[in-house]
Amino acid sequence: MVYVNPGKSVHHHRHEDTEQIFYMLEGTGILSIGESREEYPVKPGDVVRIPVSVLHSIRTDSDITIKYLCVDCFGGKPPLEPTWDAHARAVCRENGWEYDQVVSA
């Protein structure tokens, strides 16, 4: 499950080893796709597919927290980031963030 609080966003990023499927459960927001950050509104009931290596991010557009189920679909190879912790550490490295500060926030 992914939660994005009001006024917040998931940073623009990509996954080289998996596609993702999002099932929107609560809240509304804006999904940005690709280098150009083309924008699409998302709401409960929407299903979104993010292909391998496609840049993406999502941000809230109201005072309601976005909640969505994110399913990673690995393509037969061992995943580069096999756990949530491995993914969080990779994101922190890419952005110059301190892992311990990010996960304790």
Explain this structure to me?
- By secondary structure, this protein is an alpha+beta fold.
- The protein has a single domain (2-80), classed as Jelly Rolls, CATH 2.60.120.
- It has helices at residues 84-95, 99-104, and strands at 2-4, 9-13, 18-26, 29-33, 38-42, 47-50, 56-60, 66-74.
- A 4-stranded antiparallel sheet has the order 1-8-3-6, with no helix packed on it. Strands 2-7-4-5 form a 4-stranded antiparallel sheet, with no helix packed on it.
- The longest helix has 12 residues, at 84-95.
- It starts with a strand and ends with a helix.
- The mean pLDDT is 89.
Question: Any key phrases for this structure?
Answer:
105 residues; alpha+beta; four-stranded antiparallel sheet; globular
